[in-house]
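ARCHIVE CARD
CATEGORY: sequence design from structure
SOURCE FIELD: tokenized fold
FIELD CONTENT:
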């Protein structure tokens, strides 16, 4: 077994808001350099239901599917298969849990697992994804943080 990536952090917003920003608001914060096309102005969609797709749609209408929702428990848990830039047969799994730390603070815990499906490429791909998470998550935190002065 290849050790999963495990991440946890807090964001300054209520639980419902944290979940909503990750799911229905994903296109507002997901950066173009973390997509298949890399195109600015594309739309990222996470269909909010079990069996829903996660995909990008370019301005020309081209669609690249990244994964499928396998657990949908708003506002506390979301899990999906993940095969961005890989085949569906090589999909890993991302499991995200949202927990209220206080009325206006949410703890987010992520486990990205299933690297053994990639055979010899599992550990290098996991390590590459660890770097991807490090550059992706600040976008989410910024989008989810509620400014008390507004």
């Amino acid at each position: 077994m290849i050790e999963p990536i495990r991440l946890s952090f807090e964001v300054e917003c209520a639980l419902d808001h944290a979940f909503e920003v990750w799911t229905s608001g994903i296109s507002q914060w997901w950066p173009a350099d973390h997509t298949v096309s890399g195109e600015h102005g594309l739309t990222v969609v996470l269909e909010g239901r079990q069996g829903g797709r996660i995909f990008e749609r370019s301005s020309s209408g081209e669609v690249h599917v990244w994964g499928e929702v396998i657990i949908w428990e708003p506002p506390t848990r979301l899990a999906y298969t993940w095969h961005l830039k890989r085949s569906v047969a090589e999909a890993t799994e991302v499991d995200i849990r949202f927990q209220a730390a206080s009325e206006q603070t949410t703890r987010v815990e992520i486990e990205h697992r299933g690297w053994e499906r990639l055979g010899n490429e599992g550990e290098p791909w996991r390590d590459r994804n660890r770097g991807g998470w490090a550059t992706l998550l600040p976008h989410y935190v910024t989008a989810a943080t509620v400014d008390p002065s507004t």
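CARD ANNOTATION: The two ends are 47 Å apart (CA to CA). Residues 122-144 form the longest helix (23 residues).
SHELF: design records, drawer C
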